[in-house]
UniProtKB/TrEMBL annotation:
UniProt xrefs under PANTHER family: CANNONBALL-RELATED, TRANSCRIPTION INITIATION FACTOR TFIID
Composition-biased stretches (Low complexity): 16-69
Gene source species: Adineta steineri
Full protein name: TFIID subunit TAF5 NTD2 domain-containing protein
Placement of WD repeats on the sequence: 517-558, 559-600, 601-642, 649-690, 691-723
TFIID subunit TAF5 NTD2 domain location: 153-283
Length: 790
């Protein structure tokens, strides 16, 4: 575990007395500006443009000295003018301010450090034109070179920032999308051309600008820390970030038609900054967005991806997000109604020892229900649901069908209906003495087992219902069992419950309530239990995935294929398949019956950090180090074709920690270090809304059994419950504010549960909608109060 990175502080005004660096006795004549000529073509844009010459306008430049409140106006034609100065007392005076005359005496020159201070003040106030004029005059008067090689880079970026500031408020945010990628490419270009010191000055000059910090760089703080460390050509060549940023595709920007025409005029017709046009032509791709310009808040939410926004064409493939009929909740409930109507209330327990005919009929009815041919009316299913044969999924075995029916009879029939007036109870488990030692937690589907993965490569399994952990009988005892008995699976296990209850508190019996699994040679990063609690998957830093038997408490097989540490592993909803993701930039699909990989999904230059299975087991969702969410189809691609994601979604500003599909499979919910809960529509990859409320990273998330309640756990020592069902209903009814995309937390947040000093690592709803929380206690004497996930 590590702690969140500190944010950089705002720069302070370095000038204490501006009169020491500026003289007020002389008049300075400024030369007229010259315009460089060039031409270039933006990809995917019309280039039918005439070379129209434009007359040069006289622009008034303002030099501001905040400490004294003095403002002097200098015309571009070289004539000083007198301007009004607003003082703190509210009075208005007039005063003349000018630069010193040209002189060859070294003592009359402005010192280099003073020159840098003045430049910084002008740049912090976005006075780009004044910066350009001041640099030129400093060079001409004192024969000083300010950064001979980096000068075009400063001039070009300052000129574009000034152009953005001149745009109206309704479209200014669209033009500002280009500032960050232009800044990065210019910095990398300076370093690659062996101008490291000038590159560092270039970096500090813009990153320390408070206005850019609050707007342009706010969505890229994590990447700026990486960029700052790239100070040599060798580091750039080895950097995975640079490979992802420069060689994994063009930076994608969406503009409305009006903004694109203005940008085309600025870069082509005016031809003032050839360096800008060269970078845009080499690394950018501009897409026309239908309609008018998007509002600033929507653009802010969708920004943050390493390569800008997502191409529209990347989300056009069809996705079958519906559920499979054989595993649908409604069909099981319908089966329950058939059973109850055919057997009556007296036989509801299903024992039937004294009535063998009834028990036989019940067993036959259960079997026939799953195998019967459905009528035409019942065959009418969701058109968005995939066919049962699209992905090979084994049919449910008899004991699995019986377990499903018993589960719905015993638990789902007593499930709590959660409403704003009937909120769920929360049972919280705090793990002591595990701070900085526990990496991951996993709870079984029936909420009876808890698995803990530790940094010392060990796995602990605990019983949560005060029952001892069962073990399979010895082979000699298994041979004597009647294999035709329908309760054969229960008879295969040892039964130690016959012991006297007085021995329950003995230390020897406590050992049966927990198990230790050893085999990995590195820290455990991910755990996943199968639905029937027979198997446990674990992934580790040792590049391997292990399948453990929770019946014999031993390792059955080790899956090898990843070439770097494995970050996450998860069983599919039906237990037959499982998926893993790794630092080797791949996600892999496996089957418990084969030791080899079935599918390999490659994410270019980015590590894949977390994943999630779709409820119909036809898709998996992944999140990589570039903060882009991708949904992959498990269907085998045609021969020779590369596996490509069918959905891509960008909007998170920091790494994503947890992914979760909604119960109906249509929506994907993501959360992570940026404290945003983003809800995506899988039908088209669009953002539904963003929920804000947590004040620290979000590590855990779960939906209630009926899918109407969303619960999130964070490192801010709180658990928040959201009315997810009402949010989706408002979205379908058109009542959700989809323009702003940000939903106030007070509108859908139902309640907040707080812990004392426990960061919630895992959240789980039981079959009866009881909320379980799990977390590691953070000692109060620790120097840092909040820990974050590894």
């Amino acid at each position: 575990m590590h702690f969140s990175s500190p944010t950089s502080s705002s720069p302070q005004n370095p000038i204490s007395n501006p009169t020491n660096s500026l003289s007020t006795n002389n008049v300075l004549l400024l030369p007229s500006n010259t315009t460089s000529k060039m031409s270039f073509i933006i990809p995917n844009n019309n280039t039918n443009n005439n070379n129209n010459s434009s007359q040069q306008q006289q622009q008034q430049q303002i030099i501001s000295t905040p400490t004294s409140g003095l403002t002097t106006s200098i015309n571009s034609n070289g004539i000083n003018s007198i301007s009004n100065v607003s003082l703190s007392s509210g009075q208005t005076t007039q005063q003349r301010l000018s630069f010193p005359q040209r002189t060859t005496s070294q003592s009359q020159q402005i010192p280099q450090e003073e020159f840098a201070k003045i430049l910084r003040v002008l740049q912090e106030n976005n006075m780009t034109e004044s910066v350009e004029i001041f640099k030129k005059e400093y060079q001409s008067l004192f024969n000083k070179t300010t950064s001979s090689f980096s000068e075009p880079y400063f001039t070009a970026l300052d000129g574009y920032i000034s152009y953005v500031q001149e745009q109206p408020d309704t479209s200014r945010h669209e033009f500002s999308q280009l500032i960050y990628p232009l800044f990065v490419h210019m910095y990398l270009d300076l370093v690659e051309k062996d101008h490291a010191q000038e590159a560092q000055d270039f970096f500090k000059n813009y990153v320390q600008n408070t206005n850019l910090q609050a707007t342009v760089f706010a969505a890229h703080k994590d990447d700026l820390f990486r960029i700052k460390s790239l100070v040599t050509k060798e580091l750039i060549a080895q950097s995975e970030y640079v490979k992802s940023f420069r060689h994994n595709g063009r930076y994608w920007i969406k503009l409305c038609n009006a903004s694109l025409e203005l940008l085309d005029q600025f870069l082509i017709k005016q031809q003032k900054y050839p360096l800008l046009t060269k970078i845009v032509q080499a690394y950018f791709q501009l897409e026309i967005n239908d309609g008018s310009a998007r509002n600033a808040e929507t653009q802010r939410l969708l920004s943050g991806g390493r390569l800008g926004e997502i191409k529209t064409e990347d989300n056009t493939n069809r996705m079958y997000y519906g559920l499979l009929r054989d595993h649908d909740l409604t069909r099981i409930l319908q089966h329950k109604a058939i059973l109850s109507s055919s057997t009556g209330a007296d036989n509801e327990d299903g024992v039937g020892d004294d009535q063998p005919s009834t028990s036989k009929n019940r067993k036959k009815l259960k079997k026939d229900f799953f195998n019967q041919r459905q009528s035409k009316a019942s065959l009418k299913v969701d058109p968005n649901a995939p066919q049962l044969t699209r992905i090979p999924i084994p049919e449910l075995r008899e004991h699995e069908r019986m377990d499903l029916i018993n589960t719905f009879q015993e638990d789902y029939s007593r499930m709590l209906k959660i409403t704003p007036d009937n909120l769920p109870s929360c049972c919280y488990y705090t793990l002591l003495n595990g701070y900085l030692e526990i990496n991951c937690l996993e709870v079984s589907e029936d909420s009876t087992l808890l698995a803990v993965g530790c940094k010392n490569s060990s796995i602990y399994v605990y019983s949560l219902n005060r029952r001892k952990l069962i073990t399979m009988k010895l082979p000699s005892e298994l041979e004597r069992l009647d294999k035709s008995n329908e309760h054969i699976y229960e008879q295969m296990m040892t039964n130690d419950d016959s012991k006297d209850n007085t021995n329950q508190n003995n230390d020897s019996d406590i050992l049966y309530n927990q198990r230790l699994l050893c085999g990995h040679t590195g820290p455990i990063y991910g755990l996943s239990m199968s639905r029937e609690k027979w198997f446990l998957l674990s992934c580790s830093e040792d590049y391997t995935i292990r399948l453990w038997s929770l019946l014999t408490w031993s390792c059955l097989i080790t899956f090898r294929g990843h070439t770097q540490p494995v970050f996450d592993v998860q069983f599919g909803p039906f237990g037959h398949y499982f998926a893993s993701c790794s630092l080797d930039k791949t996600a892999r699909l496996w089957c418990i019956e084969h030791a080899q990989t079935l599918r390999i999904y490659t994410d270019g230059c980015n590590d894949i950090e977390t994943l999630c299975f779709h409820p119909n087991s036809n898709y998996i969702a992944t999140s990589s180090s570039d903060r882009i969410l991708k949904i992959w189809d498990l269907l085998e691609s045609k021969e020779g074709q590369q596996m490509k994601p069918i959905r891509q979604m960008s909007g998170h500003k920091l790494n994503v920690c947890i992914l979760k599909f909604s119960k109906d499979g249509r929506y994907l919910i993501s959360a992570g270090y940026d404290r945003q809960i983003m809800i995506w529509d899988c039908s088209n990859g669009s953002l539904v809304t963003c929920l804000l409320g947590h004040s620290d990273a979000i590590f855990s998330m779960d939906l209630s059994r009926d899918g109407s309640i969303l619960c999130t756990g964070s490192a801010d020592f709180s658990i928040r419950i959201w009315n997810f069902g009402q949010l989706i209903k408002d979205k379908d009814d058109g009542k959700l504010d989809t323009l702003q995309r940000v939903t106030p937390s007070a509108k859908y947040e139902l309640v907040t549960y707080r812990t004392k000093r426990t960061s919630t690592t895992l959240i789980h709803f039981t079959r009866r909608n009881l909320l379980l929380g799990f977390g590691v206690f953070i000692p109060p004497n620790d120097s840092t109060t909040k820990a974050t996930k590894t």
